[in-house]
Amino acid sequence: MNLFSTAGVRVEGYSTYYSPGLGEVADVILVEPLSEELFNRVYRELVKKGYMAVQLKSEKPVFRIIPFSRKRSRWKIPLLLATVVTVFATGLGLSASFYTVTADVVAWSIAYTIIFIVALAVHEFGHILASRRSGVLIEGPFFIPAPPIQLGFIGTFGAVINMKTIPPDKKSLSQIGISGPLFGFLAGLVIAPFGILLSQPLTVQQAQSMVEAGLASPLAGVPLVFQVLEYFMVPQGYTILVHPLAFISYIVFLVTFLNLIPIGQLDGGYVLRSYLSPSLYDLVGWASIALLMTLGIFYGIYLWIGIIALLFKLLFGRYQHPGSANQYSESHNFIYLALYLVLLALTAPIP
After folding, report:
1. Confidence of residue 1 (pLDDT cuts 50, 70, 90)
2. Given a cut of 80, is residue 166 above it in pLDDT?
3. Are 137 and 118 part of one and the same domain?
4. Three-state SS for 72?
5. Residue 13: enclosing H or E segment and its boundaries?
6. How far apart are CA 259 and CA 263, in angstroms?
7. Which residues contact 242 (CB under 8 A, 6 or more apart)?
8. Residue 291 host element (H or E)
9. Closest residue by Cα to residue 320 from 288, 273, 272
10. pTM of the predicted model, to two decimals?
11. What's the number of domains the chain is made of?
């Protein structure tokens, strides 16, 4: 309460109650809502003390103080090690299809693993950097292993961070949401030219012959930015046998596109939720799934993306996205929305 009295905020009432799984929650009834500047200052002070602040819209503004656990997960290192193993197995499979010398296969498998893990980490570093600037307490990144390419996948489901507190305002919500895809995209943009240079040029006829002989498979939907780089780096009339390094950038761009779908806790959800009301945001999410499924009738890659998006919606998007901690927040930076639309276009898979 000292924070309110010091700031000259008038308080109308105060109550506490116990919430299972959270602990003792305090509700402070205010005469008028805190300004964004003051709310953000109080938010940061409370985070230092182990509490999350939320300002709820109601007949009288409610400033809710919620305790959170600072306990760190023990799974971060085991998950990272498991992901290294599955990504290395994928790199081994890809390198073995590109190189014939065992030493080259092993060397590129190691390089593939390091570069892929770093690319995933760069994406999460974008979120971490934006979270720390906004005063949001986070934990991670947590790398998620998956079946390697020998079992039909790519060795990882990516990485995530655990946000222990909700972003304080709409501006920080969209900034945190876009920072990961932006950093990941830039990482892919650095890797892609080297991967294309290392890839083997083939005439279209040679490529078709390899596909017909079962020696190669065409990539299902290549992101626009990758196609633009190919246009400038590969001679006319030629295509490429994709090098493992180029495959990393392909996956990074594809995952960036998937992450930008405005659903649940995906990065695109954080961005668009900061500009839309809860009901409109939910409508846009279902419309995005419907659009992906419709495109999937003509292009198989979009059908798979649509199915993944639907699963995310059903599993993680069942509950209303909380938005920012300050429901009175009106802060916006439309640069983040512009970046969102540009990244969505550049990473869209083109059949």
Report:
1. low
2. yes
3. yes
4. coil
5. strand 11-19
6. 9
7. 195, 199, 219, 250
8. helix 278-298
9. 273
10. 0.92
11. 2
